């Protein structure tokens, strides 16, 4: 067992107890941009507003833009309010995600929210995904529609990451839970990560497998961010062997997990809005990955939505999976 593995075994329970020992997110401190983040790329396409707590990221013909957290975190609760660009947004991707690819080039971890733009008259979609230990060949994507227009107003998007599970939230409604299983092994994200937000041109894959591209006639595309929450155990960026955990002033600051009422909301959301799940993709996986729990009703619903992908029939399938470049 190497130094890093020993470190994680000793400290991972500490972090999990910290995260699970609190309650809900509304009472967590809202950070200004400069308190938690730094400019990543895009020059003046990143604009911090006068209040210091809101940021505009824009994409134009020159470049996209992005920012990154100043600290590395091992577990915690991470959140931002986001308003997406309207009108024609095909090929545009806005991402809010955690990664350590800059430190672990060949065995990185990642937890993703990706917002996929669309042609006029079609709605934005959300994609969630995780990677652990460089397991990029096993995509764990899910895609969803939303019950609101994300371009009309701000909505909160949050990630809860513990030793035991990862939960994605939209406006405090859990939309996906990934439980750590023994069979997943190192595929579960387990090393310290930083948090990123970016907007960029993904014309080659994002809308109908690349059929519709970014049209810069509608640029600049502006994604707005506010209500930043970075609440977790920070790790030393050099040694990765010392942790400092935030102490929430309110004992109910971090979600303990999914309550029975929240689980009902999550099941309702998934029944109404999920459009793709890797667990049912019979073209990519003849046998679902080990952590998948197959629901027959869910399988039938998705099969009707896309009989080729979820029924295992023949047809053209866009199997290419994008690996995000931080700077484009």
TrEMBL record:
GO terms for biological process: cell wall biogenesis; cell wall organization; xyloglucan metabolic process. This is Xyloglucan endotransglucosylase/hydrolase. Catalyzes xyloglucan endohydrolysis (XEH) and/or endotransglycosylation (XET). Cleaves and religates xyloglucan polymers, an essential constituent of the primary cell wall, and thereby participates in cell wall construction of growing tissues. InterPro entries: Beta-glucanase-like (IPR000757), Beta-glucanase/XTH (IPR044791), ConA-like_dom_sf (IPR013320), XET_C (IPR010713), XTH (IPR016455). CDD domains: GH16_XET. It comes from the Eukaryota. Contains at least one intrachain disulfide bond essential for its enzymatic activity. Gene3D superfamilies: 2.60.120.200. The gene is EXGT-A3. Its EC number is 2.4.1.207. The lineage of its organism: Eukaryota, Viridiplantae, Streptophyta, Embryophyta, Tracheophyta. Residues 1-225 form the GH16 domain. Its main location: secreted. One of its GO terms (molecular function) is hydrolase activity, hydrolyzing O-glycosyl compounds.
């Amino acid at each position: 067992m190497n130094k890093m593995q020993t470190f994680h075994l000793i400290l991972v329970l500490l972090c999990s107890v910290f995260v699970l020992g609190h309650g809900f997110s509304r009472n967590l401190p809202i950070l200004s941009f400069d308190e938690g983040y730094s400019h990543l790329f895009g020059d003046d396409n990143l604009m911090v507003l006068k209040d210091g707590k809101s940021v505009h990221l824009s994409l134009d013909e020159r470049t996209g833009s992005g920012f990154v957290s100043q600290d590395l975190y091992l577990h915690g609760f991470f959140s931002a309010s986001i308003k997406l660009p309207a009108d024609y947004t095909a090929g545009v991707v806005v991402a809010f995600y955690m990664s350590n690819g800059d430190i672990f080039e060949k065995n990185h971890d990642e937890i993703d929210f990706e917002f996929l733009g669309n042609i006029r008259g079609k709605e934005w979609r959300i994609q969630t995904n995780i990677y652990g230990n460089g397991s990029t060949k096993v995509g764990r994507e899910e895609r969803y529609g939303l019950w609101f227009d994300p371009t009309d107003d701000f909505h909160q998007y949050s990630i809860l990451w513990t030793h035991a599970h990862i939960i994605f939230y939209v406006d405090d409604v859990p939309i996906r839970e990934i439980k750590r299983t023994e069979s997943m092994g190192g595929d579960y994200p387990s090393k310290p990560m930083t948090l990123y937000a970016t907007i960029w041109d993904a014309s080659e894959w994002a809308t109908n497998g690349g059929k519709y591209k970014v049209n810069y006639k509608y640029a600049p595309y502006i994604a707005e961010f506010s209500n930043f929450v970075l609440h977790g155990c920070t790790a030393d960026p050099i040694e990765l062997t010392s942790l400092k955990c935030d102490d929430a002033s309110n004992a109910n600051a971090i979600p303990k997990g999914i309550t029975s009422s929240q689980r009902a909301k999550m099941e309702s959301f998934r029944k109404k809005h999920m459009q793709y799940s890797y667990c049912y993709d019979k073209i990519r996986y003849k046998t679902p990955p080990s952590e998948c729990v197959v629901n027959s009703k869910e399988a039938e619903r998705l099969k009707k939505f896309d009989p080729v992908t979820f029924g295992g029939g023949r047809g053209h399938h866009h199997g290419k999976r994008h690996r995000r470049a931080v700077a484009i």
